[in-house]
Amino acid sequence: MSKFIRNAWYVAAWSTEIDDDLRRFTILGDHIVMYRKSDGGVVALEDRCPHRLLPLSKGKRVGDNVQCGYHGLTFDCSGACVRVPGQTNLPKSAYVDAFPIEERHGIVWIWMGDPARADTSKVFDMPEFTDPGWKVHHGDALHLKSNYLNVAENLVDPAHVSFVHPTTLGNAASENVPVHVQTEGEAILAWRWIRDAEPIGFFKGFGGFTGNVDRWHYYYLYTPCTAIIDFGSAPTGDAIAEEDRNKGVRIFALHFITPVTETHTIDRWMHIRNTAIDDPEAEVTMDKMFRVAFQEDKEILEAVQEEENRPAKRRPIRIAIDKGPLVYRKRINDLIELERTEDLASDPSPAFVYHD
């Protein structure tokens, strides 16, 4: 049984990762060759020639087409075979799958499921990407030896911050502060405020706070694999309300999670900030701090994966902070099951009369 949702948009790469060369990417266990056409658009094809199965990424470009490096079969950007050297007829089975692509804000998104269902309006977006009052900065592609579900759950879990990131994104002041969870909307949301507390290491280094602050963490997890963390701080004396977070130093940390295989995940992270928008040194400083924090996550998640790979003596326990992750797992399982089941009721047979 598949462990992945296929009818969804995933981040395949940063725009800077794709150029004119044939490059292999692995997403949901599938090998894909990606490159840019002469007009700059991105092509994504199944990276396996249907003849002898050599990866097309080991072939070469012929204009905007790809030629297999084994026997020269050539495929266009739609995946159709346009040449078989030595013969004029083109077998119907001579094709490779082509994957819909949407590129915006320096991010290349790929649709891994039924191409007819690829709705570009469903690609994640937010107004701050184009708002001149915010600075957008791309970070890294963090490779983790971990299942994507564990990575995603970590990104809707404010409670771990106090213990995993005590010198960067959290401190002891938040250990016993309750976490609020809302699961009704499109995104699963977990949040909390820590009032009148020492600033965390991140904002000591970046925000310049010296006295106590009010700080917040809002974790939004969108199915299947996009997480947005809205966090920031403001001087306690300002007594800002929840809806006035823009008055403080506010940062959105964006995490685009790409399942590579069952135990390999890429977390491409970036940030959008409302302060120091014209200061390139600010993002250098922030990247350094983010890298420290995300390395802390990596060590935890990879250690958890190692234990999950071993025989289990009993089922793990669940505690109050697990509400968001449990709802997330259920949503994923429901969507996977829906993809496995053909919906015959959507176009009912005229032999039946429905009164509902």
From TrEMBL:
One of its GO terms (molecular function) is 2 iron, 2 sulfur cluster binding. The keyword Oxidoreductase applies. Its EC number is 1.14.14.-. Residues 9-110 form the Rieske domain. InterPro entries: Cholesterol_7-desaturase, Rieske_2Fe-2S, Rieske_2Fe-2S_sf, VanA_C_cat. It comes from Pseudosulfitobacter pseudonitzschiae. This is Toluene-4-sulfonate monooxygenase system iron-sulfur subunit TsaM1. It holds the Pfam family VanA_C. It is an enzyme of class 1 (oxidoreductase). PANTHER family: 3-KETOSTEROID-9-ALPHA-MONOOXYGENASE, OXYGENASE COMPONENT, IRON-SULFUR DOMAIN CONTAINING PROTEIN. The keyword Chaperone does not apply. Keywords: 2Fe-2S, Iron, Iron-sulfur, Metal-binding, Monooxygenase, Oxidoreductase, Plasmid. Gene3D superfamilies: Naphthalene 1,2-dioxygenase Alpha Subunit, Chain A, domain 1, Rieske [2Fe-2S] iron-sulphur domain.
